[in-house]
Structure formats: structure tokens, C-alpha cells
Design goal:
Layout: E1 13-24, E2 27-36, E3 41-44, H1 55-68, E4 77-79, E5 82-84, H2 89-98, E6 103-107, H3 115-129, E7 134-138, H4 145-155, E8 160-164, H5 170-183, E9 189-191, H6 193-196, H7 203-206, E10 212-216, H8 217-220, H9 223-233, E11 237-240, H10 246-258, E12 289-291, H11 299-304, H12 309-330
Parallel strand pairs: 5-6, 6-7, 7-8, 8-9, 9-10, 10-11
Antiparallel strand pairs: 1-2, 2-3, 4-12
Helix pairs in contact: 2-3, 9-10
Length: 333
């Protein structure tokens, strides 16, 4: 276990670097650290664009997994969606068809791509899932307000379940929601970045900017922290991943398993996007669900996917700095 008083790296920690099968929101390789504590394995893998105080909740989530474990589960199987990157229609069809999920989340608003390309991707996914499948789209805040209104009208023909983070700001989300309700083109809005990267995660509910809250365990500080947000925010919750290995996904499953209600499929099938994993049996959906259970970490896989010494030093230094910052925060500095 890491020493919170000295900011040291855990004695038995491992860095990893895993390629992605397809570029995903500009990411081609996923990096992070894993270690084992008294309660189990933990993952700490903040994206490289996170820095400073933003890194601390990710560390709290890892410490919870390693040292405390999680609340008792209310369910043992979690329904999940497939995740379709911003790829061409042929590959999108193949991913949706072979994932075995009844719900797909499709990335849209990719930089450098057109709305017509988004529509072609959605058409392919709709063909793969059939009329009974559910499709949700995720713009990662990539549309302006006007673009979002236009896109929703153009893409509504694919019978969408909801649109995730269509615009970047809470104000735009609130205005978009009002405009859609008035116009008759209403589509539920889910907030992701406006919760996990916000100073106040409850603003989306207080300003009537979203219908659904997307919660991710690592950036929000752990399973218990997410349960508190879910209780206070008063919106239906979708649990989603931060593109982790199965060790990180296991924490997402713990949250989904502990929520009083789980009305939507969760975005926890993203290990399928990685070229490999660090456990013996990766947490990948079968018949649209992932079972909640124990993991067996594969030491050979950890050794195989160990990055070069420069990357290791970067992650070790990043962890030490973040733990020191977390200690100062706890002391009220």
C-alpha cells in the first residue's frame, strides 16, 4: 500500500501501456498504473490532459479499491452497451454486430468529420442492431448550440435513446434542452464532462441542463463518492468507463451493482477497445451483460505491457506528486 504520509509509490505497483484497436478520441495508447492493497487491485490511470488537483479524485478512487473495497452489490449482472468509435460505416457495423450488446453508444462530432459521416455510421449501427436495438450518441461537447440543434434534427431518424454531452458548457446544454422541448424534436440529454470535470457536479440538475447523469468512478473519486452524487443529483444514472483495463472496469461494475436503480445499459464494455488486457479473463460483455465477480491479474501480461523506463518514471513521479497534493488538501493547506 502507498504511504499517504510520505507520498511514496506502492511497493508492488506496475505501469502499463496498452494499444487501442482503433484510435478513440485521439488516444492510440492507454497508460496507467495498477497495484494491489489489502482489499484488492486498484487502477490509477488519469488521462494525460488531466493535471494538478484534477488528478486527486482518480487517486482517491484507486485508494478506495486497494484499501477499502466497495459496498455490497444489489445485482450480479450489469447490462452494458458497445462503444463505437468514430470509424467508417463498415467497421462500425462489424463492431456493433460482434459486440453482442443490445445497446450501442456511437461517437459523433469527431474533429475533422462531417455530420454526413456521423449519419453513415449511425445507419450502419442501426442496421447491425435492428429496429429493437438502442442507440445513443456521444458528442463529447463537440457541437456548438446551433450545430447541436441541427444535428439532433438530422440524426433523430435513427431513433436515438439519448445524446451525451452535445455541447461543452452547462449553459449550452440547458438552452439546447429548452429549445428541443419547445420544438418537438425532444431528445434526452446526458451530461458527462459537465459532471466529471465540473467544480460543482450538481449544476446540470440545478439548471435543468440534463436528463441523465453519466458517472465515471475514477475521475469522480471512487464508488462511494459516485453513490453520493447519484443520491444528490436526482437524475437517472449511467455508469461509464474511463477507458481502463479490467481492473478499473471492475470498480465501475461495483458502482453499477450498488446503485438502487439502473435504468440504462452502462458504458463499461470498453475493454473490447483495447488490444489486450492485464487479467486472465477480461471483463467483456457476453449477451449484453458483464458479470460482477473477482479478477485474476495476469503477471505475464503486466510484464508484457510494461512501458519503457521513461514512461515508468513519468507515472511514478506523477503518482508521488498527486499523493503529496492529496495530503496537502487533506491537511487544509
Amino acid at each position: 500500500m502507498a504511504n499517504a504520509q510520505t507520498g511514496t509509490v506502492p511497493d508492488e505497483s506496475f505501469c502499463y501501456a496498452l494499444g487501442l484497436r482503433t484510435q478513440f478520441r485521439g488516444v492510440t495508447e492507454r497508460q496507467g498504473m495498477v497495484w494491489r492493497g489489502a482489499a484488492g487491485w486498484a487502477e490509477w490511470s488519469p488521462f494525460l490532459d488531466y493535471e494538478g488537483a484534477e488528478l486527486v479524485p482518480w487517486l482517491h478512487a484507486a485508494d478506495e479499491a486497494a484499501d477499502r473495497g466497495w459496498p455490497a452489490p444489489l445485482r450480479t449482472e450489469i447490462p452494458v452497451n458497445s462503444t463505437i468509435p468514430a470509424v467508417g460505416p463498415e467497421l462500425a457495423y462489424d463492431i456493433a454486430r460482434t459486440a453482442g450488446c443490445h445497446t450501442a453508444k456511437v461517437k459523433v462530432a469527431e474533429r475533422g468529420q462531417s455530420l454526413a459521416e456521423d449519419a453513415s455510421r449511425l445507419e450502419a449501427v442501426r442496421d447491425a442492431l435492428g429496429p429493437g436495438g438502442k442507440i445513443r450518441i456521444d458528442a463529447n461537447g463537440g457541437w456548438s448550440l446551433d450545430d447541436a440543434v441541427h444535428a439532433v434534427r438530422e440524426l433523430a431518424r435513427f431513433d436515438l435513446e439519448y445524446v451525451e454531452q452535445p455541447c461543452a458548457s452547462i449553459g449550452e446544454l440547458a438552452e439546447l434542452r429548452r429549445l428541443l422541448m419547445r420544438s418537438g424534436w425532444y431528445l434526452p440529454i446526458a451530461a458527462d464532462e459537465s459532471i466529471r470535470r465540473a467544480h460543482d457536479p450538481y449544476q446540470v440538475a440545478e439548471r435543468a441542463a440534463a436528463d441523465i447523469a453519466v458517472l465515471k468512478v475514477q475521475p469522480l473519486g471512487g464508488v462511494r463518492a459516485c453513490l453520493q452524487i447519484a443520491e444528490r443529483i436526482g437524475l437517472p444514472v449511467v455508469v461509464s468507463s474511463a477507458l481502463e483495463t479490467s481492473i478499473g472496469i471492475r470498480a465501475g461494475l461495483a458502482l453499477a451493482a450498488a446503485l438502487p436503480e439502473l435504468p440504462y445499459a452502462c458504458g463499461l464494455n470498453t475493454v473490447a477497445l483495447l488490444a489486450d488486457d492485464v487479467v486472465s479473463e477480461p471483463l467483456i460483455a457476453v449477451d449484453g451483460v458483464i458479470k460482477v465477480g473477482d479478477l485474476i491479474v495476469d503477471q505475464a501480461a503486466l510484464d508484457k505491457h510494461r512501458p519503457d523506463s521513461r514512461v515508468e518514471r513519468f507515472w511514478q513521479a506523477r503518482l508521488v506528486q498527486t499523493r503529496e497534493l492529496a495530503l496537502r488538501q487533506a491537511q487544509g493547506a
